[in-house]
Write a structure and sequence with these properties.
Elements (H helix, E strand, L loop, with lengths): L2 E8 L3 H12 L1 H6 L2 E5 L2 E2 L16 E2 L10 E4 L6 H11 L3 E4 L2 H6 L1 H9 L3 E2 L11 H5 L7 E7 L2 H11 L4 H10 L8 H4 L2 H14 L9 E3 L7 H9 L2 E12 L2 E12 L11 E8 L3 E8 L3 H16 L24 E2 L1
Helix pairs in contact: 1-12, 7-8
Bound molecules: NADP nicotinamide-adenine-dinucleotide phosphate.
């Protein structure tokens, strides 16, 4: 007996339109899991807009009452205001939320924490887009205590830095990243390091402390970085990368995002263009490195639709570390030269 599930979609921009296409393309997979998926009219700002990148017959609405009929909410709108207001009432009704919105998760934890702790929230796409990190960190890697974690988390910043290595100016590289749909709106969220800090905050709560505060992420972005500095690094066998780190320091967990100089052979230096990398060091697992696409519509949609497949398979949402983990006393984390 096939179970019917109604999807309430919020947003049909870069990510949402790809989600719609992938939901359509994977219908037979959902059916093999025992679910018939129906997408309700998609909630957008302007339903009259021409949209030729979505499945034929997709309907749009500006009336958020449509969400009342949904069983599962996909949020790909972004921001911390209206998006939170829309999902909060649905979470209160016990519905499942699948979201790519790291800003909302990082900054409105006061509201979202209880729903995330009880497994209602799936958010793989919020960190490193389509590259699975929250699944492994809340699954297999939970058997390890965290010793340190480092990651390249901004597809936009990594794309800009890679293009500057080729000789592009900062401004030209940013414009290209925007044209490819990698950049946040506004792009200052990326280049100031805020977007990477949002993701690092999600990672800190998943790995070391469910109460890690957004205000405790120390952040410096790419502003003021010259092409000359990037090219000089390449000439010296180095790479400039924006790296987020969670490390033990003076008996506390310390989380920071900043541009650093890496040896060209370092695993974190291997992700070019919009790709992202996470290096997790656990006491039992040792060093685990995950690398893949970190921005873009389809790659982000792949994680959101993957979350739905996990939900149908009976896997709960991405739950944070149940309590603050012990800060390791005898572990010396890797230190990078900051720019
Ligand atoms: N782009 C990426 O590579 C990427 C990667 C990972 C995660 N994310 C996250 O995914 C989310 C969406 O990003 P995006 O790049 O897809 O954004 P986007 O292209 O700007 O799309 C936003 C969508 O939300 C709709 N919307 C905006 N305000 C609304 C409102 N008040 N009521 C109803 N709908 C509203 C817009 O409607 P209209 O179409 O009518 O304007 C649009 O369809 C963000 O949280 C972002 O951080 C993005």
């Amino acid at each position: 007996m096939m179970k019917r599930v109604r999807i309430g979609m919020i947003g049909s921009g870069t990510v949402g339109s790809s989600v719609l296409g992938l939901l359509e393309a994977r219908k037979s997979l959902f059916e093999s899991q025992g679910y018939k998926v129906k997408v309700l009219p998609v909630l957008v700002r302007d339903p009259s807009k021409t949209r030729d990148n979505v499945p034929l017959g997709t309907q749009f609405t500006a009336d958020d009452k449509v969400l009342e009929d949904a069983d599962i909410i996909f949020e790909s709108m972004g921001g911390t205001g209206k998006a939170l207001e829309l999902v909060q009432s649905q979470l209160q009704d016990g519905k499942i939320l699948i979201t790519a919105n790291k800003a909302m998760l990082a900054e409105r934890w006061d509201v979202l924490k209880p729903y995330t702790m009880n497994g209602q929230v799936y958010c793989e796409a919020s960190v490193m887009a389509g590259t699975p990190v929250l699944g492994p960190l809340t699954g297999t890697l939970r058997s390890s205590n965290t010793l340190e974690l480092h990651a390249i988390l901004s597809g936009t910043c990594n794309y800009i830095l890679t293009r500057m290595e080729d000789g592009a100016t900062y401004e030209a590289a940013l414009a290209e990243a925007q044209a490819k749909g990698y950049a946040e709106d506004p792009p200052t969220l990326d280049v100031a390091g805020t977007d990477a800090a949002h993701k690092l905050c999600v990672l800190a709560r998943i790995t070391v402390d469910p109460n890690f505060a957004w205000a405790d992420i120390h952040t410096r972005g790419l502003e003021g970085l010259s092409s000359q500095r990037v090219l000089e690094a390449v000439r010296n066998g180095k790479r400039v990368k924006l790296v987020g780190s969670i490390v033990p320091k003076n008996g506390q967990w310390h989380a920071t995002v900043r541009p650093v100089l890496l040896d060209a052979e370092h695993p974190l230096a291997q992700s070019a263009s919009s790709r992202n990398t996470m290096l997790f060091h656990g006491d039992a697992s040792g060093i685990v490195i995950v690398q893949g696409g970190g921005a873009g519509g389809l790659v982000t949609a792949s994680a959101m639709v993957g979350d739905l497949i996990d939900h149908f398979a009976g896997v709960t949402g991405h739950q944070p570390s149940p309590e603050a983990t012990r800060v390791p006393q005898n572990h010396t984390p890797e230190v990078f030269a900051e720019l």
